[in-house]
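Thread: quick sanity check before group meeting

JM: Hey all, I'm pulling together slides for Thursday and realized we never actually wrote out the predicted structure for the chain we discussed last week. Dropping the sequence here so it's in one place. If anyone has concerns about the input, flag it before I start.
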Amino acid sequence: MRTSDISKFDFNLLRALHVLLRERNVTRAANDLHVTQQAMSGSLKRLRQYFDDPLFIRVGQHLEPTPMALALVAPVRDAMRQIAMTLETTPTFAPEVTRRHFRVAMSDHASLTLLPDLIANMAYAAPGITYEIQPVTKHTLYHLDLGELDLCVMPQNLRVHQSNLSNVCPKIRSTTLFDDCFVCVIDANNPTVGQELTLDQYVTMHHAALKMTDGLQSLVEVSWINAGIAPHIAASASSFASLICMVPGTPLVATVHRRLAYKFKTIAPLRILDCPVQIDVTRQQLNWHYRNDNDPTHRFVREAMVSAGATMQ
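JM (edit): ok, ran it. Output follows.
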């Protein structure tokens, strides 16, 4: 039976509920908390008794949350986040002694250009802060809302594509880190291209092109459509870095970010040329949940990212 006397509530059950709401599977939840499946089933039984609600109903191999369980998602998530922040509280914020782990979703563009300088600077300014870098997916803003990510860096146009998360996006703050433009990269010894790459050559060449998931189109693909051209795609990959690595020793051309192209030019035989097709400038944005606005450690890392982006500009 539910009671408002928190002294009688086992807060281990709150942790169990948080994982069950995320995993919706007793076995996975038990593995996440490093307990037996029997112990997790016991926790679920006690939660059902406390809330006087089944909370989860089995549908096939999954547990589907009841309306009561869905109503608990946000308050339980926020409570767990507040507990974590409480445990990390220090009397004063001192970057040189603060210990914190940040989970950051980041595009490959940002991870190869912004991240190295950021890590180099923070290694001295805040050596106790660690980072776990994850790829950006269609679920990134949702995970940011759930508190499963602390920050994400993604192109502005990709943020727009995720705007269908109408209940999430208003909670997400963002700021610009840096802009970049697109260039073409070819093998340094490509005999068919002179000092300039003409539109006719660009259209007839074989391309290494970005293949985005979830039916999204890259800025390059959009520019091709706007220009009324359909270049032949000989190879595709999910990252711009992979496209550049395909070019040396081949007749391929890849249309990639200028900063990435020049970074790889120092280690690979590449030529960098202006792209004959007009492509919009890409803008990398830093995103975070508003609940972290006043968290001093979080703010410190955000400011370090903004500073690194300004240095790149």
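AS: nice. The chain has a mean pLDDT of 88. The chain has three domains: 6-73, 100-176+284-312, 182-280.
JM: adding both to the slides.
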